[in-house]
Structure formats: C-alpha cells, structure tokens
Amino acid sequence: MLYFDYSATTPMSDYALDTYQRIARQYYANSQSLHTLGQEAEDVLAISRRTIAASLPPARPDDIYFTGSGSEATFLALTGLAIAHKAKGKTILTTEGEHHSVHQALAFLHDREGFHIRYLDVNQYGQVTEEELRSAIDEDTVLVTIGHANSEIGTVQDLAALGKILADHAILFHSDCVQTFGKLPIPLDVLTSASFSAHKCYGPKGVGAAYLQHAVGWASFHHGTTHENGFRAGTVDVPAIAAFAAAVEEMSANAHEEMSRLADYRDEFIKAFAGHAEVCFEGHPTARLPFHIALRAKGMEGQLLMLECNRKGFAISTGSACRAGQSSPSRTLISLGRSAEEAHELVRITFGKHTTKQDVTQLIKAIKEILLTYKGDE
C-alpha cells in the first residue's frame, strides 16, 4: 500500500530508530539518578535538548521541555502560561480551526479557572488577518493561541505579523507548530511558547516538546514534580528523546530541498484536477504546507473516497487523525462557511520522504477512476 497520510504520522527514520536502540541499550538509567549511569543518561538528555534548541533559533536549551506528545506539550504550555499570568487578564483569543488539544486545554481553563475564550474570525482560507486580531484585543486579553498551520486544510498563518501586534500589547503568544516543525521556518522570536511532536518528523511516537521563553513565567500543572524542571511528571524517556533529536537533526539538514520536492508533487496533483468541476481544493493557494492537499469531491462523502482509495492500495485520510471516529463536521471547515455536508466531503492527502513522483501519478489516476465510476453510478 502507498502511504499518503504523513500529516497523521510518519515512519521512524533509520537514523532515529538506530539512535533509539543504541541509547536504550547503553543509557537505560533514570536521568535523575545520582550515580554515574544516571548522570550519563542526563548527559544524553542535555545533548538532545541542545540539538532541538539549535533547530529553533533563538531558543536556548533551557527553553525546551520534553513531554509525552505534542498534545500534552500544548496542554501544559497553555495551562501553565494562562494560570501563571491570570492576574493580568482572563481572556484568551483563538480560532475554531485549532487542533483538538488546544480546544481541550481552553475548555479546562474555561471550566476550571474561569477564563473567557473568544474565537477570532478567519478569512476564506482560514487565516487570521492583522485587522481581525487588532480589533479583538482588549485590556483583559492575556493570551493568544493560533496554530502555525492547519492540519486539515494546510493553510499557514503569518505568525510573524500577528506576533508583532501581540508584542506591542505585551500579550502572550502560543502556537501549535506540530505540522511545521522540521519542515518550515518557525518565527520563534515572536512566540512565547510553541509545541512540537516527534512522530510528525520521523521520530518515535510518545514524545513531544514545548518551547517556553525563558524570561516568561509559567505555573506547573503537576504540583511537586521534579522532572523537566516541574513541567511534566513521570520518568523521562531518554531513548525516545534522543531519537527525536536525531530525527530533527536529520530533517534540518535538507528541509528546504525536501519541501521544494514535495511542493512540486502537490502542485502537480492540483494541476491534474484543474478541469474537474466536481473537485475543489481547500486552504490558501500559496500560503500552505508544501506537502499537503485538502480535496473535496462535490457530493461525495470523504469517507467513501478514502475507503475506495484504500481498496485500490492508497492510504489517505478524511482529515485530522485526532478526529477519527467523530461524526461531527470539521470545526475548521464550518468556520470557513462550509455546510456540514460539504465539511464531510473533505479528504486529506499528504506527502513525505518516501513519496515518489510515480506514487503521485498513480494516486491521481486512481482518484480520477473513482470519481468517474461514482459519477457514472449517479
């Protein structure tokens, strides 16, 4: 089967897998143990932290906190910042199109801590405009969270422009950068915090990281814990973190060339359906993930198209993997003005390091055949 679901997860690279096995065998001690073996494991952790920070200028190693996932990084960063700074204000701005983990964190802050959550309007491509952000800010606004790129439609936000506005108002700015880390430049200089995931960039599952600007205070969600300077409870998974760092180091070496290659495939795919009136593409035409396609076949359930592709040997998805099994329509597409029926038409096709031009050509051919068969059955 040909894999076209790299936004859901990526296979571990050989380099990351070899690193995991080597570290697991040699540096198996608890990194907080005071004996020599424990200190050797702590050294591996410190090297990994430096590697991650080096890929995220101007981050420092002590700005990086390792977690069990990108979702956990998002939850701990948002709750930690909001609670620590609630004396300055209790309004948080966000968008409907954020990842599920963002909505979970904000629901907790609303229900348990009394924060007010306000949703920014977006343009037809899912972007927050500078004008919209300026008009939404008031004296009670303490935090804004806007994802760098939407996992369902691929639109990339102009974080640099938005961040300058928030800096002028001394407002905290968090971004879910899971889809862009290791792939696109992240304007970390305008962010207070950001969240990342290893398994989206050819590292292992079960490990993520949060960036928290060292000059900004945060509150520990797990009171009394000592791991990760109190940011996260639980023994640190040193082999997984080392593999994460190895994957990031490997990706960073040729990220520009790789994204350019995948953007060519993306553009070729979109061009192949230019004459098909029943096919439309969601997301910004240029400010979008280079490896990502969000497609709707008008009048055809996305799940049906996905299953037909699966039957032909192609693995695509119907949107965010975190929404699998949910019958409700995508909040992202509803916020763009799509009907529930239109939102259910969405499929997501994403490319990665193992995707070839021949693979893309075969997928184009398969989808055209499916659409022709479906249209003929009407």
Automatic annotation (TrEMBL):
Residues 3-363 form the Aminotransferase class V domain. It comes from the Bacteria. One of its GO terms (molecular function) is catalytic activity. InterPro entries: Aminotrans_V_dom, Cysteine_dSase, PyrdxlP-dep_Trfase, PyrdxlP-dep_Trfase_major, PyrdxlP-dep_Trfase_small. Keywords: Pyridoxal phosphate. Its cofactor is pyridoxal 5'-phosphate. Gene3D superfamilies: 1.10.260.50, Aspartate Aminotransferase, domain 1, Type I PLP-dependent aspartate aminotransferase-like (Major domain). NCBIfam families: PRK02948.1. This is IscS subfamily cysteine desulfurase.
